[in-house]
## 1
Amino acid sequence: MGANPSLVVVDYDAGNLRSVERALAHVGVDAAITADWADVSRADGVILPGVGAASDTMAKLGERSLTEPLREYVASGRPFLGICMGLQALLDHSDEGGGQECLGLLPGNVRHFGFDHLKVPHMGWNQVTWLREHRITSGIPSGSYFYFVHSFYPDPADPELALGETTYGFTFPSVLARENMVATQFHPEKSGEAGLAIYTNFANWVREAA
Amino acid sequence: MLTKRIIPCFDVDRGRVVKGVSFVELRDAGDPVELAKLYDAEGADELVFLDITASSDNRATVYDMVSATADQVFIPFTVGGGIRTTSDMKTMLELGADKVSINTAAVNDPDLVNEGAYRFGSQCIVVAIDAKGVGEGWEVYTHGGRTPTGIDAIAWAREVVERGAGELLVTSMDTDGHQSGYDIPMLRAMSEVVNVPVIASGGAGGPDHMAEALTEGKADAVLAASIFHFGTYSIREVKDALSEQGIAMRPVADRD
């Protein structure tokens, strides 16, 4: 166990960057905000935040030379947490804005809700049911409520990737996890106590893995 | 399932919470950050701050409040009042607000809605509509409800959503401050023409009024101030009452 593990939040101008930083500070975690690929490469834990459009996200990651370092970081097996757009960016492809290739770290697509009978975006508090055990959800009851704001949802190629699911019109995977990767479609930094617990669990994981 | 939201609203003047009765008489109800923390702990789903500070000399008090709130409260919150440009929006969002609400500025310059939605995303652009019944319909008022615009409120709702508003905060000037219920026909008319969430405001006297707005009024969220600030009902009491009526609510966590 490292004495001072380095937990970084990737800065690519995502709108919720500061909220994530504040939530981490609130649970006593000292995180570095960085746009420097070298910081990502040597980190013990990485959080990819995000709100906004898939095309902007991929363009910004590219401009800041973060795309390959993120792929390499994930391949190294160290803990990774993606949030909202930071989840969607992990999949192969998003249907948003006429189609956007994403990082391809998890197999699958990102699709639009496309409801006639329900409002889009899916905005507000909704329940997440855990589908299996994972350290990121430790101590958080299945069926807890989290805050969502999104018009697109993840559609992973492998159903086993789903760690949590949520129902809005139909049931979709709202948390994905594989090996060292975890990603939530909801915003833990805006989800009160349950959300803060996600950050605490992630920080503990990073500390133990470092 | 997606829950309906209960949103306490704070009218803030020079960093202090006040609430107007029919927008005229103002009473002080406390420190905004302390109230925000209290309401978060009580189960508020979201918070709205409306800055009614008249002088721009006092803007710094609002900046401090927004930043302090974002440091201590981890549920979404919206800031409105005095936001006239995308630069004002950027300031508030960077200070930690999740959404900004515009009202008079949107009427004066409707392109501000498009520009804000383009730059920051629709999800953080709330258009507040203050309206008053006239004939068969409702008319938009600006400047805190003092200035009639001649604009039809339902047409305006449709227009701002087309321009990119992600949510509407709809206040009835007729019912606001009277605690005798929301303007259900107006809410319903508005909810039926837009595909974004509608927050009902103006007239909450208790949970029954809220239930009415969320069912017959088809609103997605209800906003209230006085009944919470003066302790007539707690958020928990409201949520319990609405749950009993079969309305989906995020339960209030029990804390030690």
## 2
Amino acid sequence: MTTMKTRQLLTYAAFVAPAVIFFTMVILVPFMRAIVFSFQDWNGISSDIRWAGWSNYTKMIGDTGFMKSFAFTVKYVAATTILLNITGLALALVLNLALKTRNFLRTIFFLPYVIGPVIIGFIWQFIITRLFSEVGKAAGIELLQKNWLSLPDYAFWSLVIVTIWHSAGYFMVIYLAALQGVPKDMLEAAEMDGAGRLTRFRHVVLPLIRPAMTINLFLAISNGFKGFDLNFALTKGGPFGTTESLAYHIYLDAFTKNLFTYASAKAVVFFLVLAAITLIQVAVMKRREVEM
Amino acid sequence: MKKWLSMFTVTALLMSGVVGCAGGDEAKPDAGSGKAAAGGEKTTIKLMQFKVEITDKVKAMAADYMASHPNVVIEAQVTSDYETLLKTRFASGDAPDVFMTKAFTDISDWSDKLADLSNEPWMSKVSPSAVQGMTVNGKKLGFPVAFEGYGFIYNKDLFAKAGIDKVPTTLTELKQVNEKLKTAGVPSYSEAYKEWWVLGQHLFNLPYAYEKDPVGMIDKINKGEKKVTDVANMNGFFDVLDMTVKYGKGAESVGVSYDNQVSDFSSGKTAMMQQGVWTIDSIMKINPNIKMGMFAIPLNDTAADTKLPVGVPGYYVLNKNSKNLEESKKFLNWIHENGQKYLVDSFKLIPAFTDLKTTPDLGPLAADLSSYVEKNQTVPWAHTLWPSGSNQEFAKPLQAYVGGQLNKEQALAEVQKIWNERVKK
């Protein structure tokens, strides 16, 4: 009996250990190190590292740049989370219909997600600054003739649009999977009872795809907060630092301003905020899920 | 239990984000780089540098060195995201043996990792004006790769078309040139103010560089004895900035990237651009027949004050903890011995050594630069004296000024604030 148990335990360990080891080495140790760094004073280069107590944290209070990029990030997360889920769900609903081209279209919509965000940033930078103005001139649309990346509001929406274009397909796939899990008989029963299209969607489909919503909201929120590549490749945080995401802001502090430990402190605060937000979101959404 | 598990997963995923942002593992200085040269094994010299324009040529040079020195392998890495990668490689124990730093602030930040090169055979041949930027506490730490300079690069055909027969040497003349170009229907500029270095570093360098004593002035600002507004030619800087915006892309200049700027100029869409000698290859690739020159940017109406900012963009430095320090020194010496072939003829750089000569092959921009150097009409790259990282920060209020979000006083107040904060740190 005991040998059975140890064997089971060993098998279990053998399967879990690689993941745990990598997680510890690649995530946990650096994470702990970042926390330690946040109480130190170091420029990232010299061999002289001093202890700094809470000074990195107190310095943050008056840091307008940090606050600004925080505000930008929150705005960006709100916009992308809402739009990504709406477009993702809409695409999924359409492609769940018996269209002839639906497999083809599913691939097409998912395709942008396969391309790396940095490449996408460079491609869209070209499209926005060069192609938009050409199209705008040809069609006489004034909106498109402006250089979007030079105006704060336009630059913000450029980022949102490119994010949606990039990730909507991924959210679509998750919603599609959920939609296909909705039992046909339940829908038919509702139809028999006289429920119209909208009622069926609101009262049968929506509650049943709640788990997918939980996942998608979580993904959208955490990806939005962690957004870095697009800001880096598309806007470089500009114009005048108005589109500097938190992650990009922290990166700049650490690697260009040589404020390595200060950046670590910001990252720790960032982690706490993000953890609080997403834990609340997941907890609230979980409560609303319906199990079948 | 299930709930607990999902919470844990969520937290774990989030942590990966933070680690991605702030990451960086403990430094392991003892984890030496490269294999030991002992036992007839090959020595690997790891070279890292940021001049992406010459990537292929650096690799070709490395290949030549390996061919003539069969016991040495050179791993050359050229990257534009240099600062990040360099720190990451040091932090991960994969430090390069030979790498590049910029003058003054940057080289002194790195100085406790650098080998003293004062006694190297080539050191006596370094051009005097390249020495100060690499001297930290009396030790000479760097091998100057080149001299570079920047100003307004102009299209000679478009200037002729607008009836301009002489390059401007004062602010008033510059304005006249712009007016003439406007009358001829040629846009003067399409300035890449999206790039922090075009605006916040190169253009903003000018008023500091035009100071009688740039080192002393910046030192005083650092100490809080002087303010940014005390810099004599600050108004002239804003006059020039206004011109590049007014006769250029307007407020939308802050959305123009380096590629856009260079391609607009090269294809003859604009008559001028504020850039330096490093653009020559990119311009020639787009338009090999272009006739162009470069002139110094005036900030006032005294023609004698108008000088070209010339500096050393990067120094090769050696990691003093490297196991291959001696091999690396030999390598630098070899580069100097073959400097004419590699630094000048192949990299197309203007040599910062007295025993290497500029050749006509370097093109019209280098020729104009040399003529300023010969007449001794040069000013330093004062931005290398600024507190580290402030050049990127300065670009933001200046971009906001170009975008019409801040006026001149507000922009300068922001610059002063950034400066104070960076010094305080």
